[in-house]
Amino acid sequence: MQIPSLTPLTAAHAQIIEAVSERLGKRAASAFRRVGPKVCRAHVESAMTALVQDLAANQREGVRAFVHALVLELAPNGLTFADLRFFAQTFRAQVRETSSATPEATELRLGVEDWFFELIVVCTTCFMAWRDEKIQREAAQLGVQRLESQLAELEVALEEKTQLLELIRQASTPIAPVVQGILVVPLIGTFDTLRAEMLTEKLLLEIARLHTRAAILDISGVPVFDTAAAQLIIRLARTIRLLGTAAILVGMSPQNARTIVQLGVDLTGIPTLATLQDGLARALKLQRLKITPLPTS
Questions:
Q1: Rounded-to-integer distance, Cα 200 and Cα 208, Å
Q2: Do 121 and 67 reside in the same domain of the chain?
Q3: Which domain holds residue 30?
Q4: CA-CA distance, 47 to 260, in Å (whole number)?
Q5: Coiled-coil ranges per the record (predicted)?
Q6: Are 4 and 108 in contact (CB under 8 A)?
């Protein structure tokens, strides 16, 4: 992967740190509020340093070291997983705003998204490992009478971890270029607002980078196609069309078709086809291309 230009990040280094530190310090009843602005700012500076170093070296050692240090220091101050999630979302939003300031910084935005994906994974792993160790220590100290309640807390934590990892897996929707100018986006699992936002940004970057003429959205793997999911997919398709790219919806099962009719969802202007093969044929036709067999020798 080509190492992106870090000029937008380095130029806004102090601005990002100031904005993120201020928001973290205002979060009520959080570990960041309890440790005070000085410690909070130091961790934001460490995160910014790790981001720049990792992007410059095209590796992810910095984010892992940063998260380990963050959890180790803030855990005794009542750090919760909600605190870590708020940190990641706040930091990501501020960096995204900076990296989006220059339209040509496509590689930088892709690198930033990949780094924050790693940040979420490492935060989850480190926090759950610390939680498990804490529960084991307290169970040994408090005795058997409190073991059941601690195990129940562990089960809740593991369930939270499972749900988050599933969200991460779903959010990392692959975008596959199948023919020059044509992308296929298979949607698998629950399609919610967070996932739609992440997918939209990723897809728009790929469309601009690959000069895509048609994007095929395959919804055959979406288990629940309700009003919310339909509206999110329609919004995604319309956003794609603003870039001059045709959006084609495939994988429309009879059940999903009935649901759309019952809900009164308007798919006007968005071609809907039954299979991926049909969608690819439509996309090829839009580019005046077709697949022909090779002549036999």
A1: 12
A2: yes
A3: 7-171
A4: 45
A5: 137-171
A6: yes
